[in-house]
Automatic annotation (TrEMBL):
<dbReference type="GO" id="GO:0022857">
    <property type="term" value="F:transmembrane transporter activity"/>
</dbReference>
<feature type="transmembrane region" description="Helical">
    <location>
        <begin position="315"/>
        <end position="332"/>
    </location>
</feature>
<keyword id="KW-1133">Transmembrane helix</keyword>
<dbReference type="Pfam" id="PF07690">
    <property type="entry name" value="MFS_1"/>
</dbReference>
<dbReference type="InterPro" id="IPR020846">
    <property type="entry name" value="MFS_dom"/>
</dbReference>
<feature type="domain" description="Major facilitator superfamily (MFS) profile">
    <location>
        <begin position="1"/>
        <end position="427"/>
    </location>
</feature>
<keyword id="KW-0812">Transmembrane</keyword>
<dbReference type="GO" id="GO:0016020">
    <property type="term" value="C:membrane"/>
</dbReference>
<feature type="transmembrane region" description="Helical">
    <location>
        <begin position="69"/>
        <end position="87"/>
    </location>
</feature>
<feature type="transmembrane region" description="Helical">
    <location>
        <begin position="338"/>
        <end position="362"/>
    </location>
</feature>
<dbReference type="InterPro" id="IPR036259">
    <property type="entry name" value="MFS_trans_sf"/>
</dbReference>
<feature type="transmembrane region" description="Helical">
    <location>
        <begin position="99"/>
        <end position="118"/>
    </location>
</feature>
<feature type="transmembrane region" description="Helical">
    <location>
        <begin position="281"/>
        <end position="303"/>
    </location>
</feature>
<protein>
    <submittedName>
        <fullName>Solute carrier family 22 member 15</fullName>
    </submittedName>
</protein>
<feature type="transmembrane region" description="Helical">
    <location>
        <begin position="157"/>
        <end position="179"/>
    </location>
</feature>
<feature type="transmembrane region" description="Helical">
    <location>
        <begin position="124"/>
        <end position="145"/>
    </location>
</feature>
<feature type="transmembrane region" description="Helical">
    <location>
        <begin position="185"/>
        <end position="203"/>
    </location>
</feature>
Length: 458
């Protein structure tokens, strides 16, 4: 049943990409109409010339109201940010499984609120709540699956999750092509969440977390190899404070936060801009999903080679993505070379997808078990900031057509260079406790600092 988590990436992709199709703006023009009155007032009337149903056509989100489409997308990612903050520590306290199942159930509920929203305000609020639940469970269940298996399988399970997300984007494009009314499409896409919730009900709790809580008997009931968990000890320290106080974790966290931010900004910026490209909006969305598929076997090959590893592979893919986006800037406007720009953008998407996948795997290996969920939560928070900004970056082409790709290029190149500061984790042991990073004496000193900080906040 652990395969239900990677497959859940399909449902998460549906929710992330929903605004691309249901928020698409069809062709329209504005007519001037005279209102019979003493002042003979002129009013504008929007007329849509394309047979297409979306939130734009229902609530006339054009002209001065067009920003509301991007706002709805940003609210979803803002929800992801809040969810990461709240659900990560909660899962460390009460367990991975109950937090994951509760979040998934509520995400489905709020997803149906989106489908039947009577007004834009309710629609926007529901996207915020869906994002909150989505963000909460995404990191929690990623950690849950990683803690089911040994480190040798982390790359495989992480890659499988990302692959399912990419396939989900393509499947959502096909679903959108078959189901055109936006409310029907939203209902159909959200119904997949019901299926994945039912598949996830029988998932067991993380054996690593159970051992950390001293629940040895329950942990041994989970049918996985657990011989090396006996030395794990429960920590009552504030996880987030330790990320700040710990000298090793502090540097890693700052670098990883920027890497995750850049990955998210470039990944979602390119993906959400697919609907604005020339040609069929459904084909564009499908291409931006399918182009990720070769990225995963590619990154799996490189990260397991001693001459590449996690660090060099992630940095290289980020730099290649930034370079591809920079090359689109060099193509002059109005030269009939739209296909070349599209190909370079797809190449950039392929490369950043590989980097994003490695970032998930790499980050899991850089944090000890007792603080892994908090570390992933902080990095994912930074990732969501990039996601919040991503919907607005493609619209910056009104300033100049090269501005969005310039932003993506600088983000990818700078993150790739900064990522070289991190240590390599290939074939190295995974830390289970903080003692393994600083030694027992160093941990006690840091624990005292954390307690002092905690007391100052009370």
């Amino acid at each position: 049943m652990q395969g239900s988590r990677p497959c859940n990436g399909v449902y998460m992709a549906f929710q992330s990409m929903l605004i691309v199709l249901i928020g698409s703006t069809p062709e329209y023009h504005v007519e001037q109409q005279q209102v019979p009155s003493s002042s003979q007032e002129l009013v504008q009337r929007v007329v849509f010339t394309e047979d297409f149903d979306s939130i734009v056509t229902e609530w006339f989100l054009v002209k001065q109201q067009a920003y509301k489409v991007n706002l709805a997308g940003s609210l979803f990612f803002a929800g992801l940010l809040v969810g990461n903050i709240v659900f990560g520590p909660l899962s460390d306290r009460i367990g991975r499984r109950p937090v994951y199942l509760s979040g998934l159930f509520l995400e489905v509920v709020f997803g149906y609120v989106t489908a039947f929203a009577p007004s834009y305000e309710v629609f926007a609020a529901s996207r915020l709540l869906v994002g909150l639940m989505n963000g909460g469970i995404s990191v929690v269940c990623f950690v849950l699956v990683q803690e089911y298996v040994g480190k040798s399988y982390w790359a495989m399970t992480g890659t499988l999750t990302s692959l399912c997300f990419a396939i989900g984007i393509a499947l959502f494009a096909a679903l959108g092509y078959l189901i055109r009314p936006w409310r029907n499409l939203t209902t159909a896409a959200n119904s997949f969440g019901v299926l994945f919730f039912l598949l996830s009900v029988t998932l067991p709790e993380s054996p690593r977390w159970l051992y950390c809580q001293g629940q040895t008997d329950r942990a041994e009931q989970v049918d996985w190899i657990t011989y090396f968990y006996g030395h794990l000890k429960n920590s009552s320290m504030s996880s987030f404070l330790f990320l700040v106080v710990h000298p090793v974790l502090r540097i890693r966290t700052v670098v990883l936060m920027y890497v995750w931010y850049s990955c998210s900004l470039v990944y979602y910026g390119l993906t959400l801009g697919a609907g604005d490209s020339s040609g069929s909006r459904y084909m564009n969305v499908a291409m931006y999903g399918l182009v990720e598929v070769p990225a995963y076997p590619l990154c799996m090959y490189f990260i397991n080679k001693h001459w590449a590893g996690r660090r060099k592979s992630m940095s290289s893919f980020l730099c290649l993505s930034g370079s591809a986006c920079f090359c689109t800037v060099l193509i002059p406007d109005n030269t009939g070379s739209v296909l070349s720009v599209t190909l370079l953008a797809l190449l950039g998407k392929l490369m950043v997808s590989a980097a994003f996948n490695i970032a998930y795997i790499y980050t899991s290996e850089l944090y000890p078990t007792v603080i892994r969920n908090a570390g992933l939560g902080v990095c994912s928070m930074s990732c969501r900031v990039g996601g919040i900004m991503a919907p607005f970056v493609p619209s910056m082409r009104v300033l100049h057509s090269s501005v969005p790709f310039t932003v993506f290029s600088l983000s990818g190149l700078s993150a790739g260079c900064l990522g070289l500061m991190l240590p390599e984790t290939l074939n190295g042991p995974t830390a289970e406790t903080l003692d393994e990073l600083t030694g027992p004496t160093g941990s006690r000193v840091l624990e005292n600092k954390v307690r002092q900080l905690q007391s100052s906040f009370i």
